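re: that chain from earlier
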Amino acid sequence: MEKKLNDPFLLQPIGKDYIWGGRRLKDDFGKNIDLEPLAETWECSTHSDGLSIVKNGEDKGLTLKDVLIKHPEYVGTHPRMNGEGDLPILVKFIDAKNDLSVQVHPTDEYACKYENGQRGKTEMWYVIDASKDAKLVYGFNRDIQKEELKKSMEDGTVEKYLQKVKVSKNDVFFIESGTVHAIGSGCLIAEIQESSNLTYRLFDYNRIDKTGKKRELHLEKSLDVANLAASSSPRQPMRVMKFKEGYALELLCRCKYFQVERMLLNTERIRKMAEVKTFSNSFEIYLCVDGCGSMMWEDKVEPFFKGDCIFMPANSKKVLLHGKAKLLKISC
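^ sequence. v structure.
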């Protein structure tokens, strides 16, 4: 018997009002979320700390997690799925008006052992935009001993050991678990990560949150998981453009958790729409980071705009794209 083909659908995000956020997700992406500041939007998430909502179609208004429990065939036969509607990855937009805390994430093994079976967190950043002087923290500028790091965390001098890296629009950074890091002010970023919300803070600039308290630091856990060796300066990946009819693709990142490609869609000058094919055994996510367009399948037409997130189920119907847009094509 032939497998049933599935409709794609748009997702509605959940927002986060962390103290370092700004307004760009509202002003640039039209995120109509009643939070101030709006630091992050979790665009595709089945994590219990922020569930995405289905925006259109027969399951409109349900959480993505509930839809994937109802339709397990949407995720395909991905080996990292747990069968309970829990995607292995999470997709975000991040607006860093101010510096994020200096932090580190655990490996899967550490998180499973010490954080009640949770996932660790390896992530990738795609820089949508950056101010002229924007920087980020990527590891240490030299090898550091555990006692030396502990003392610097306790007395608030850890910054002198951190490697600062200049950031430009369209840059890509791969942040493996254990890498000490921080997004700097002036960065607008799309983040693709393992589905985890485990963050250990080493330093937070002695900031006060909205309750009048300093945010919690996690000194012992940070020391447990941080890679103390000097980090080499991150290099931008060599990008090879593959041209298709109506669009081009370039690989940004591939690791054991996810693959991210940048799609440059432009059907303005051709008389044929771009056909995209999804894997039969796994879902895909399309995140529009610029421009707009329409997706069409059978007798349906659905517009998408800058900031929208599209979920393509496994065994999706043949989808045609039309417009001029930049999208991140995410699979795993």
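Residues 241-331 form a domain with the Jelly Rolls fold (CATH 2.60.120.10).
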